[in-house]
Amino acid sequence: MSWHHPDNKLPFKLFYEFSSYIKELPHHSVLSGERDGWWMDGWMDARHFDSVAVKMTTARYRPTWELAVDPLVSCKLCLGEFPLEQMTTITQCQCVFCTLCLKQYVELLIKDGLETAISCPDSACPKRGHLQENEIECMVATEMMQRYKKLQFEREVLLDPCRTWCPSSTCQAVCQLKEADSPALPQLVQCAVCALEFCSACKANWHPGQACQENNLPITSFLPGENSSFYKNEEDDAPIKRCPKCKVYIERDEGCAQMMCKNCKHAFCWYCLESLDDDFLLIHYDKGPCRNKLGHSRASVIWHRTQVVGIFAGFGLLLLVASPFLLLATPIVLCCKCKCSKGDDDPLPT
Fold first, then answer.
1. Angle at CA 23, nearest 5°, toward 22 and 24?
2. If you ran DSSP here, which 8-state letter would residue 171 be given?
3. Which single residue of 113, 123, 190, 349 has CA 20 to 30 Å from 314?
4. Are 184 and 198 in contact (CB under 8 A)?
5. What is the per-residue pLDDT for 287?
6. Which fold has domain 74-157?
C-alpha cells in the first residue's frame, strides 16, 4: 500500500479513518483512489490489518509511506500457515494446499499405484476436484511423471473392452479384440508381437470347445519360456498368481495370505484363491487345506476377531438403545404424512 502527497506530511486523521474502513473490506481487497490530494494504491488482507506496519522510505523528491502486509494461508493437510507463494491451488476445485504437502501426496499415490485420477486431498471438497496432468507434471520429477503416464495407460487398456494385454510375461503387448455382440464371450486373440494365441476371457492358451471354468492349464502354458514348476498354479506358494476375479497378475513376496487386488478390490486367499470378501472373522484359516496359513500369530487373529465382534456389538447396542425412540417416532411421522396427503387431496376454494 503506497501513500503519496505533495506536502510531504502524512494526515493521521485520514490514516485512522482509512484504517476503520479497511477492516470492513473483504479479504485481499484491492484499494486505489484519491482523497484530499492523497493517492493510495495497492492491496491488503483485512484479516491481518492489526499487524500492519507503517514504513517510511526516503525519496529524492517526495517521501513514500508503505503498509507492509504478509498474508498467510492455512494448509488443510499439515494445518500450517504459509505465504501465498508457497501455496498451490487446484484448478478444478480451487482448494488451496501448501506445495510441499500436495507434492508428497501426489508422489505417494503414484508410487503405490493406487489412483490414476488423483483427486483433491480434501475429503470434504464440495466439487470433488481432480488434479490435471499439467499440475502433476509441475510438482513431480520426470521419472515419477513417466510412471504416472504408464499407470494411466495400463488403466485405460484394462477398462477398454476392445483391448487386452498379452498374458506372456516376456511380451506384455496390447492386443486388439474383434468386435463381438458380447465382449464377455471368450474369443481367440493372437498377439501381433509374439504370435501367442490365448483366450480373451481367462487369458490361458486358446481352448476351443472347452469352457474357461473347465480349463485347468498351468500358468506355464501361457508364459512362453518359463518351464520351471516355480510358476505353476498347482503350487500353493507360487510367487506370481492372477486375481481370480479380474485376472491381473499379482506378485507376493511375503506377508499375510489374505490378499486384496489393487485393481478390483477383491479379497481372496493366496493359497487356494477362495473369496474372502465376506469372511470378516477369517474363519477360512481355521479349517481345510489353508489351516494356520494366514501368516499371523494366533493372538493377533483373536485380537482381530475381538475388534470385529466389538464393532458389530456396538452397532447392535446402539440400535437397541435407539429402538424405543424409533417406535415412538414412527406413529408421529405416519400421522404427519397422512395429514399432508389429506391436505393435498382437499379441493381448492373457489
1. 90
2. T
3. 123
4. no
5. 83
6. Herpes Virus-1 (3.30.40)
Asked if 39 contacts 31 with a C-beta cutoff of 8 angstroms, the reply is no
The length of the chain is 350
The pTM of the full predicted model, rounded to 2 decimals, is 0.47
Strands (DSSP E) along 11-80, which ranges? Answer: 29-35, 38-44, 53-57, 64-68, 72-74
Amino acid at 305: R
Question: Per residue in 29-70, pLDDT tens?
Answer: 444 444 444 444 444 444 444 444 333 333 333 444 444 456
3-state SS, residue 164: strand
Q: How is residue 208 written as a grid cell?
A: 476351443
pLDDT computed for residue 104 by the predictor:
92
Instruction: Give the list of residues 6+ apart from residue 164 with CB closer than 8 angstroms, or none.
Output: 157, 174, 175, 177, 189, 200, 203
Q: Would you kindly state where each structural domain of the chain is located, as residue ranges?
A: 2-70, 74-157, 171-227, 236-305
Catalytic residue among 256, 264, 335, 336: 256
156-188 residue pLDDT tens: 887 787 888 888 877 878 898 887 655 567 888
State the alpha helices, DSSP H only, in the chain: 12-22, 99-112, 133-139, 142-159, 298-345
Structure-block grid coordinates of residue 166: 498379452
Backbone phi and psi for residue 75, each to the nearest 5 degrees, phi listed first = -90, 135
Positions in the chain short of pLDDT 70: 1-70, 114-116, 180-184, 213-237, 247, 249, 340-350
Strands (E), 227-298: 240-242, 249-251, 258-260, 267-269
Contacts of 302 (CB under 8 A, 6+ apart): none
Q: What is the DSSP letter of 278?
A: T
Q: Burial of 330 by CB count in 10 Å (0-12 exposed, 13-18 middle, 19+ buried)?
A: exposed
**Distance in angstroms (rounded) separating the CA atoms of residues 22 and 45:** 9
The amino acid at residue 270 is W
